[in-house]
């Protein structure tokens, strides 16, 4: 066991949040001791790019790596240990237990300050077969590489994706591109349950039009196994043959190793943090997909695992760890996904959340075009807005379109973050030229319709 | 002369602002008498689409017309008179003098309320030849049709465009597509002087790479004429052969007919209006390209001729004319333009304006990519941000990129309108997926760089 002076920073997890923080601390504190433990062989990679590596769109997985462990060691003087899994945090003695999985040895590491950035894993119920060799979550680059290798070596014919969220849809597209026959199983009435069902149905229809078998309103029950491999996925109503299974039921924070650490956990077991990304324990900080996040619209903590949030909270944690006080305000739940020709984007709260919060709201949807309607190549776009009754304050937005949904949702994200109203949006000086937009942007056209109902 | 009850609304100008207002009044007041006088044969068309009609991108100019005079008459019961030019406003007697150009007769028309929405024309200095048959401004659909017809019938070989702003650039692209040899003359150090020169140079370079002759830092002096046609454009240093001339030196409001009306004019002769679009004279309102506009960043009135502003102020004028009080807050100067593969976008104030206002500012520029840097098809994008010294409040943004500049400027437009800071922008929950953006959107990357300088 190494004794360090109290100034040392130990980081658990070497991806977006952990390395954003470590890099920031290094920039501000060039001489500080910084140690990182990462359970895989990779650091600082784009987890969001994994489906595009599996699809073959990106042929070299190294392209997803922003900075390698060697780069962090040599250029940044950050002491990165890969294939080191942290199994316990002993906050009373300010030390962590580390398992060097390559050399199969265990040791305790003291810390001056600790940052937990262990990310998330694909959620799977505790059923037999959930760790079979042909069942995959997509959470680390290592898991992505395993999927790609499994497809290449085993040539599975039939894929079943459990869950119809972002990862499920991106993986469906990826596996289609690899020539597999794809089924998606979801318990929702439509895929993409972060959209309201009237918007989700557009994506369900798009999925079916691609030749994907879509099983809606079906709960995953268990696997059927043959020689330790899953060969079928059993749902409420069906048994679906599977040569490979992808878990897309959402993410679960990697926090089980924190049991008995005294570190307070919240929603879905994610680490509770304040605006500076401090946990309830002195000198213990957390950032990224293993933490709770404040939803600025509901004013409640929730759990969201996204690269943008991981990068931002990592930077905020690092800034504070380096002694410059800064606060992460929270998020509005902006997310975007590409499914073949569709862009699917959302921000703010959806109808079921507003109902749960007893917020009186109005909602409407409009169909418009992405360019002036006379401009060649213009595409369809559908915008849904939700606003508070009476005040007209924007509460949520959902966009499905064949181009420019992603950047249009950002306008709504800014508006929602800063409590703007439908009238503010109508008044907004948004850009216009015929190749880029109708003269009233579709988000404004939707606001003009909705304001009549408030 | 027709006597009307005092309830009548008379509108001068049948394009975006005038017809937005008239349509809004009709929706709220189904029985009100509404009369519109329009000097051309067209109503409610997309003036911004004209370059794309001239280029041949849009083959039928009717596609640019949203609603025809017949439609307004028959479906909306709006009494539209085309080819009627209003030559005088007599506010003392609440009447206007109208010239029916088709039948060459003049008459007086009384009004209960008057809305002036006469738009703008291409500015040209008072030099001989400025109304020659081969010299064109692009301000009305009629003028666009004339240009297209002139090219088709006269097959000019050499075009000279005077001015390097939006219209100049869009027309340069259009004329190139029609096979003309194109020259642009501008007195600025770069084209697109609504950008700072360090961003404008990118567009100057792009223009040159298209084979356009670009004359920078050259003032237009006068025309050389041959048989009443211009055959050369004379600048400070050059005489440039021209078979056709396009005026792109900016817009001038159509307000000369208001001399002696008592209606107050402001910047560049544009009509002064309040937030409800009322002029200084009771019962006289104005909207669109003939009016001044409040710049929300400089807090000063300025002149901007844009379809978005015309539509918005027309709607605000109409809403107030119909008795529902509403205020137009102003604009931040958002504008966007396509030049071949480039999207050019700007909002807020530029360096020269900030200097004039004695606002202490910081500015920086970053180069980034429009998608994750590993994602196929990603394009270059350059973002410039300007922010107030100390406070970090965003003051302006300029983006030049090969995709998605237009929608990214909108994020900055919302931020600037609502006085957000660089830190607000960094914190912002913008959308991210590898096909659409790097994990830090380029506007955030620029903010992260600039915040170090405040």
From TrEMBL, chains A, B:
Domain FAD/NAD(P)-binding: 8-298
Residue intervals of the Pyridine nucleotide-disulphide oxidoreductase dimerisation domain: 335-439
A Pfam family assignment: Pyr_redox_2
SUPFAM superfamilies: FAD/NAD(P)-binding domain, FAD/NAD-linked reductases, dimerisation (C-terminal) domain
Gene3D superfamilies given in the database record: FAD/NAD(P)-binding domain
Domain of life: Bacteria
InterPro entries linked: FAD-bd_OxRdtase, FAD/NAD-bd_sf, FAD/NAD-binding_dom, FAD/NAD-linked_Rdtase_dimer_sf, Pyr_nucl-diS_OxRdtase_dimer
Named cofactor requirement(s): FAD
Keyword list, A-Z: FAD, Flavoprotein, Oxidoreductase, Redox-active center
Similarity comment: Belongs to the class-III pyridine nucleotide-disulfide oxidoreductase family.
Protein name: FAD-dependent oxidoreductase
Lineage of origin: Bacteria, Pseudomonadati, Bacteroidota, Flavobacteriia, Flavobacteriales
């Amino acid at each position: 066991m190494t004794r360090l002076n109290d100034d040392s920073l130990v980081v658990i997890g070497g991806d977006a949040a952990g390395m954003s923080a470590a890099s920031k601390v290094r920039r501000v504190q060039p001489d500080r001791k910084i140690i990182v433990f990462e359970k895989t062989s990779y650091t600082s990679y784009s987890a969001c790019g994994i489906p595009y590596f599996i699809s073959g769109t990106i042929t070299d997985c190294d392209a997803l790596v922003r900075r390698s462990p060697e780069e962090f060691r040599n250029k940044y003087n950050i002491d990165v240990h890969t294939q080191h899994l942290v199994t316990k945090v002993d906050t009373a003695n300010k030390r962590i237990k580390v398992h060097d999985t390559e050399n199969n040895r265990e040791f305790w590491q003291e810390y001056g300050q600790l940052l937990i950035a262990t990310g998330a894993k694909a959620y799977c119920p505790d059923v037999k077969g959930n760790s079979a060799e042909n069942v995959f979550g997509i959470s680390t680059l290592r898991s992505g590489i395993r999927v790609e290798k499994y497809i290449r070596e085993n040539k599975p014919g039939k894929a079943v994706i459990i869950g119809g969220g972002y990862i499920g849809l991106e993986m469906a597209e990826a596996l289609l591109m690899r020539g597999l026959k794809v089924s998606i199983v979801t318990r929702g009435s439509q895929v993409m349950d972060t959209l309201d069902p009237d918007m989700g149905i557009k994506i369900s229809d798009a999925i079916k039009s691609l030749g994907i078998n879509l099983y809606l309103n079906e709960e995953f029950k268990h696997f059927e196994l043959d020689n330790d491999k899953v060969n079928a996925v059993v749902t409420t109503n069906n048994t679906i043959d599977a040569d490979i299974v992808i878990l897309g039921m959402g993410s679960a924070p990697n926090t089980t190793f924190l049991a008995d650490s005294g570190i307070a956990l919240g929603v879905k077991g994610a680490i509770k943090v304040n605006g500076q990304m401090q946990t309830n324990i002195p000198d213990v900080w957390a950032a990224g997909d293993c933490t709770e996040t404040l939803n600025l619209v509901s004013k409640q903590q929730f759990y969201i695992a996204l690269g943008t949030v991981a990068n931002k909270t990592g930077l905020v944690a690092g800034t504070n760890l380096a002694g410059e006080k800064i606060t992460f305000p929270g998020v509005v739940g902006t997310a975007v996904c590409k499914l073949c020709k569709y862009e699917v984007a959302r921000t703010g709260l959806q109808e079921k959340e507003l109902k749960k919060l007893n917020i009186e709201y109005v909602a409407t949807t409009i169909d418009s075009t992405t360019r002036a309607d006379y401009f060649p190549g213009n595409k369809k776009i559908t915008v849904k807005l939700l606003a508070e009754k009476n005040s007209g304050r924007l509460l949520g937005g959902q966009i499905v379109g064949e181009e420019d949904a992603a950047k249009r949702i950002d306008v709504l994200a800014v508006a929602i973050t800063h409590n703007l109203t439908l009238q503010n949006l109508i008044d907004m000086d948004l850009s216009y030229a015929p190749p880029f937009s109708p003269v009233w942007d579709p988000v404004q056209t939707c606001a003009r319709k909705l304001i009549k109902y408030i």
